[in-house]
Structures are given as C-alpha cells and as structure tokens.
Amino acid sequence: MKSWLALIRPGDWLVLLGSAVLVGFSVPVFWQGGMADRAIIRQEGKVFAEVDLKARKQFAVGGPLGTTLIAVEPGRARVVSDPSPRQYCVRQGWLMRPGEIAICAPNRVSVQIAGRTKVYDSISY
Amino acid sequence: MTQSVIKLTVTAEDRRVAWLATAAVGLSLVDAAIPSPLPGVKPGLANIVTLVVLARYGWGTAVWVSALRVLAGSLLLGYFLAPGFFLSLTGTTLSLLTLGAAQHLPTRWFGPVSLSILAAFAHIGGQLLLASAWLIPHDGVFLLTPIFAGAALVFGTLNGLIAAKLLAETASAETSP
C-alpha cells in the first residue's frame, strides 16, 4: 500500500483533489430540478392545464391545425398524437425530468415537466 | 514476365510499435470482457499502455500505438465504423491531445497519475460531446455526466497508478541490473 502511495507525486494529489471537487460540483449542475411532479400544458402560450403527475389522464388540446392528444401518467407525460407535419413533439416520447419540454409549434401546443424547484425561473420571468 | 519484389523494410521502431499495440489491443479485449453497469463506463485498461509508451518513447509512438489499438480493437470486437468506433476514436484523439499538452508539466510534481486522470476526463468529454452532437441530439446525454466523470476519476487514478508502478519497476530494473 505504501509503495503505491509513493507513486503519487505532489501535483497528482492536486489534480486528484481538483477533479474530485469538479465531479462533486457537476452533480447539482447536471441533476438540477429535483423530481418531476407537474406537467404544464400550454396552448398559444397560455397555460391550458397544470396537472399533477400522479394520475393517468388524457387531454385533448385544440389548435389551428387540429387536436393534440396529451397523455399524463404517474411521473411522466407525452404527446400521443399531433397534426403537425414533422411530428417532432410526438417523437420526443415520454418526458420525465423537470425542465423537459415537447413543443408542437405548428399547432401551438406545448407540454412541459416542472419540478418542485423551477429550473428556468430567471429566464421565464 | 518480370518479377517484381515489393520489400517492406521493417525498422526496430515498427516492431516496437506493433508489440506495444498488441499489448494495448489485448487489454482492450479484457476491458470489453469486464461487465459494466452502464455502457460507456469502462476501466480503459489499454490506456496504461498509452501512458507507459508516452513516458518511455514519446508522444509520436503513443499516437501510433493508440491509433492501431482503436483500429484493431474495433475490428476484433466487431464495431469497426459503427458508432462505438467513432466514440472511441474521438475519445482517444482528445485524450492524446491532452496528453501531448500535459506531458510538458514539470515531472517532479506531476506523474503518470495526473496524466491518466486528465486523459480520462478528455476521453469521456470527447465522447459526450460527439454523442450529444451526433448520436443523441438531446441534452439528456449530459444527465450521465456526473457518473461518467466519477468513473473517469476512479479509473484514471487506478490506471495512472498501474502505469506509474510499471514505469518505476522498469526504471529500477535498468539502473540496477
């Protein structure tokens, strides 16, 4: 054990310590927002519904192109179907983490997951 | 019919690179055989060879050995030109560039352990950037960053220690024959 420790030079300890601090700090940076607990459905930028991610529910939101179907399940939400031509928001699949958002721009509908702490507070307001 | 003989002259340097690359390929096979809880978290044992080569024969040889290792390793494991190959290539390229810069650090203070940790971070950083730019264009990739960074720190330190041990042993064997 001692002969192994002798292989670490003074600067190595510095690099080791610095990296450990960096790894420690990366946790809150990349894992922010805590748990997902609400889904915010917006239509034309206005809040259409704010749902707790507890029960199983379906929402039909009307837009200029037709109806967007949104499914809410415990801990997650997704866009089931949408009349948009490129289907980006549908193909995004399940949204599970706070801050995740699926935007069906052509139909002007969006679903966003929110946690207890609002991730983009300072930008939104 | 004229007979043409193509003769390749093999230098001692070529032989050395080939041997070292073989050792590195062998270690990447061992690496692949070790079960991992998460794709991308690997010990990266072949980097021990890169570190030893860098210290003993210089950066140029290290680049040769690493390039051959990525190529031959991917052929043997069957992921040549698959996404994994490009991830491996990007990671290796970035860690070699880092090693090229870091080898100029004063050796009295910074040994193989420092080089190994820095190279491991460059490796995973390059892979994450490529993955987010090309394979998974979604910020969700970065959710795994703390895990990958932690693994890079742990395995980087271990590999660096092993490389330092090997270098110290070969050095003492040469000075006291």
Fold and architecture overview:
The complex is a heterodimer of chains A (125) and B (177). Chain A has 125 residues and is α+β, with helices and mostly antiparallel strands. Helices cover 26% and strands 36% of the residues of chain A. Chain A has four helices and seven strands. Chain A has helices spanning 2-5, 10-30, 88-91, 121-124; strands spanning 36-43, 46-52, 57-62, 67-73, 76-81, 101-104, 109-115. Chain A has a four-stranded antiparallel beta sheet with strand order 2-1-7-6. In chain A, a hairpin with a 4-residue loop joins strand 6 and strand 7. The longest helix of chain A has 21 residues, at 10-30. Chain B has 177 residues and is mainly α. Chain B has a single domain (12-175), classed as Arp2/3 complex 21 kDa subunit ARPC3 (Orthogonal Bundle). Chain B contains six helices and no strands. Chain B has helices at 12-33, 46-57, 59-77, 83-102, 112-135, 145-175. Chain B is globular and about 60 Å long. The N and C termini of chain B lie far apart (56 Å).
Fraction of residues in H or I helices of chain B: over 70%
Overall mean pLDDT of chain A: 84
What Rg of chain B is obtained from the alpha carbons, in whole angstroms? 18 Å
Per CATH, the class of chain B reads Mainly Alpha
H-E order of chain B: HHHHHH
Q: Order of helices and strands of chain A, N to C?
A: HHEEEEEHEEH
Number of strands of chain A: 7
Number of separate structural domains of chain A = 2
The largest contact between protein chains, plus residue counts on each side, is: A-B, 19 and 27 residues
Quaternary status:
heterodimer
Q: Please, what is the average pLDDT of chain B? A: 90
Major β-sheet profile of chain B: none
Outline of chain B: globular
Beta-strand residue fraction of chain A? 35-45%
Question: Which of globular, elongated, flat, extended, rod-shaped describes the shape of chain A?
Answer: elongated
Supply the CATH class of the largest domain in chain A: Mainly Beta
- Hey, roughly how much beta strand do the residues of chain B contain? under 5%
CATH superfamily of the largest domain in chain A: N-utilization substance G protein NusG, insert domain
